């Protein structure tokens, strides 16, 4: 296991940046939106998760996920290396703490593509620093179409993801924003808008734009 994802000090998690979460039922488009955001915004870094699921064609270890065995995963749990972890579709997924801490220390916001269980855990730990965005497909039929046309999963896996979709959608009220990803560009524009609004809100809270207040007071 790479040192950069397993060595950490959880209790020193810096609070300077935003933890920006995108969740959705599988296939609604959160990874696509995440990629677009990373390409458009230098001030946000992706949190690369650890998983025990098999690598898909085209996925890169360390870029899309850190692919580990079940034993390696449980060792990292025992070492308190994770900010959150959950079982999704029968596989283990987790957010390594060390890279998140590093990004925050460098003044970057951090982007998470995690499920509702991980979002709840992150929110319990980091509270107001977390911005939670839930992405919905326009319809369940369209969700299936997207999973099929992505062509990364067998029919059996697609069926199981569709079966889980309704229960995942039932957690929408644990989120700060809910967006329908019908038109991709329109949805992306809303994601960017949410991020910039939340950055401004945070800057107001932390006094980073105190100089504006000083100017007005003069
Ligand atoms: N608005 C959209 N209209 C049509 N197709 C879309 C739209 N958004 C995403 N897609 C396509 O849908 C498929 C699923 O998208 P994506 O892989 O981003 O979903 P996901 O929510 O990250 O799924 P998972 O949780 O399984 O990783 C991809 O082929 C993507 O190109
Ligand atoms: N709680 C967490 N959920 C995660 C994490 N990384 C990904 N995920 C979620 O798992 C499903 C399936 O993802 P896939 O890439 O196998 O299709 C999806 O809902 C992701 O958001 C994580 O670190 N923690």
TrEMBL record:
Positions annotated to bind ATP = 24-31
Q: Which SMART domains match?
A: GuKc
Enzyme class of the recorded protein, top EC level = transferase
One example GO MF annotation = GMP kinase activity
Entry-linked Pfam families: Guanylate_kin (PF00625)
Subcellular location as annotated: Cytoplasm
Q: Which family does it belong to?
A: Belongs to the guanylate kinase family.
Name the UniProt record assigns to this protein? Guanylate kinase
| Gene it is expressed from | gmk
